[in-house]
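Format notes (please read before filing issues)

Several people have asked whether sequences and structure tokens are stored in separate files. They are not. Every record keeps both together, in the order shown below: the sequence lines, then the token lines. Line labels are part of the format and must not be stripped during preprocessing.
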Amino acid sequence: MDRKKEGKTQESRGFDSSYDKDFLELKKIYSDFKQRYKVSALEILDKLEEKEVFIPISIFNEKLSALETIVKYLKENVNLKNKEIGKITGRSSKVVWQAYDSSRKKYVKKFVIKPSKYVIPVSILKSKLSVLESIVAYLKDDVNISYQEIAVLLKRDHRTIWTIYSRVRKKEENE
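Then the structure lines:
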């Protein structure tokens, strides 16, 4: 009986850690990473377990700011708490609360998600740029779409998008 249980456990894992090349390589990378960045095993595992949250581009509208839109979506559609939203967006929970409170006053109903070929990873918001600057820079640089197309997607004027993107470039030059 013990051998069967032992065999099933070994089989379900799929490798013998003492001989598997990939595991030994991962162990070395893990050790190097811990030393180089002076982080604990828990911090590494937390980062590995973090799941990327994506914002559907179809939720943007004329009534709400970019931050209000994102906070409202994360709160109502993804069911995250203010503290969690603050953590993944790089904003304080007070700023998140204020944005959500403001968004509820301006736009009462819950967002209806329409299919779109574009989504925005929340991780891009953790920069020193404003929320709208981060989104415009991501769509222009990483997704490679025109100012006009970005303007249509975000429900903003194309001249505003151009101005925001030029501001991002100036900020990058000054760093």
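For reference, the curators noted about this record: The chain has a mean pLDDT of 87. The chain has two domains: 15-49, 54-174.
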